[in-house]
Amino acid sequence: MFRNTFVEDPAQVLFSPKILPLICGTDGLVCGTVDLSLGSMLKLNFENLFSPRSIVPNSIGFQNIPNNYAGDGVRAFTLTGSMSIGMEDVFIGLPDGLWLPLLGFDAAPLGGIGTNGASVDIDYSLGPP
Questions:
Q1: How many angstroms separate the CA atoms of 107 and 6, rounded?
Q2: Taking the CA atoms of the chain, what radius of gyration do you get in angstroms?
Q3: Domains of the chain: which residue ranges?
Q4: Which of 18, 13, 19, 47 shows the shortest CA–CA distance to 123?
Q5: Please, what's the b/e burial string for 76-111 (b: 16 or more CB within 10 A of its CB; e: otherwise)?
């Protein structure tokens, strides 16, 4: 839970929660014998967040694994699992000083938010006044 947060300067990327495999060392390979086919779960909530628009687009979801990622010749695939993210009273600041709520229909154009993976659930809402 992230609550009552004000970001003053535009972030390079504001939202980028990802499910990634465990990486060891500097070679970028998966640690040991990790079963990349097992699903993962993430639950995360943002409440009362005010931030300028990110400099680059935001991505929420599951990492795409390229061919031979673990050094075992495995074909490319996307990690799986579920993500449940709540965004209550999240406002994006525009360059002209106007603050607009992030409400789902405007997630891509206003927040620059995209998702990757089948089970990414983002609940955008405004709390009581």
A1: 19
A2: 17
A3: 2-125
A4: 47
A5: eeebebbbebbbbbbbbbeeeeeeebbeeeebeebb
Distance CA 67, CA 129 (A): 50
- Report which residue type is found at 122: I
Cα 1 from Cα 44, distance rounded (Å):
6
pLDDT digits (tens, 9 = 90+) for 15-59: 777 766 666 666 656 566 666 677 778 898 999 999 998 888 888
Place of tokens 């060891």: 24
Distance separating the N- and C-terminal Cα atoms of the chain: 20
List, for residues 72-114, the tens digit of each pLDDT value.
Answer: 555 666 777 888 999 999 999 988 889 999 998 998 888 888 8
Assessment of whether the complete model's pTM goes beyond 0.90: no
Q: For 34-69, give the DSSP string.
A: --TTS-EEEEEEEEEEEEEPPSS-EEEEEPEEPTTT
Beta strand 2-6 pairing with 40-52: parallel
